[in-house]
Design a protein that fits this description.
By secondary structure, the chain is mainly alpha-helical. 61% of the residues lie in helices and 0% in strands. The radius of gyration is 26 Å and the shape is globular.
Length: 136
């Protein structure tokens, strides 16, 4: 009886080890950012670039064209269709127009970051931690 129990334990151990070594064919569901989410990520990268250019007293790079379409970029929950979102996007786009003139870049850059904070105080507060780090 004792030998049978030892044999059974060894057999179970071998089978368990063999199963744990077999590769799994599971695939993870990959997150695909909405058009609005990707645009906002690009806005962060553009803001980082402009911040450094302002700090180094360099000419500010042009705004990437797709950022001008912020109000039309499709959101995950269709927030881009809401009047409140549309109104909150306006100050950001106005600040970018100011950057485009090349005059008072620090002022307009700060206005653009303030616009981002205002919007993300109403919609999706998660990015505020990143936005707060974008100040001059």
């Amino acid at each position: 009886m004792k030998k049978a129990l030892i044999f059974l334990s060894l057999a179970v151990s071998v089978v368990a080890c063999k199963q744990s070594q077999e590769p799994k064919n599971e695939t993870a569901d990959m997150y695909e950012a909405s058009e609005l989410s990707q645009t906002m990520r690009d806005m962060v990268e553009y803001s980082k670039l402009v911040r450094e250019q302002i700090r180094n007293d360099e000419q500010v790079s042009p705004v990437p064209e797709h950022i001008w379409n912020l109000k039309k970029a499709e959101g995950t929950r269709d927030e881009h269709l809401e009047d409140a979102f549309q109104a909150l996007a306006d100050p950001y786009l106005e600040a970018l127009k100011g950057l485009k003139t090349g005059d008072s870049n620090a002022y307009y850059y700060s206005k653009s970051i303030a616009a981002c904070k205002a919007c993300h105080s109403s919609y999706c507060g998660g990015p505020l931690q990143v936005i707060n780090q974008l100040g001059l």
